[in-house]
Design brief:
This protein is an alpha+beta fold and 94 residues long. It is built from 3 helices and 6 strands, in the order αβαβαββββ.
Length: 94
């Protein structure tokens, strides 16, 4: 159930910079909300979550060739802020 909500961490320079501030970024299920994301992170990583921000990202329209058009999936991103002094060791890069 936890990994149905938390898909994977976002791997980027920006997310690693946020991790130093105690904020971790995850791709989450499109039907997840702040409460379910908070519970999933607390259970999966045994940390205390202070705040959760959610971003809904609409899929882009892309053309394939001259006439065919498709759309990428809609996605949802969660920025999870932990309490002071806590970190997720599994997501830390030394």
């Amino acid at each position: 159930m936890i990994y149905d909500i938390l898909r994977q961490p976002v791997i980027s320079e920006k997310s690693f910079a946020k991790a130093e501030e105690g904020k971790y970024v995850f791709w989450v299920s499109t039907d997840a909300n702040k409460i379910t994301v908070k519970e999933a992170v607390e259970k999966a990583f045994k940390v205390d979550v202070r705040n959760v921000n959610i971003l809904n990202l609409k899929g882009k329209v892309k053309s394939f060739g001259r006439k065919s058009v498709g759309k990428r999936k809609d996605r949802k991103k969660a920025i999870v802020t932990l309490k002071k002094g806590q970190e997720i060791k599994e997501l830390k890069i030394s």
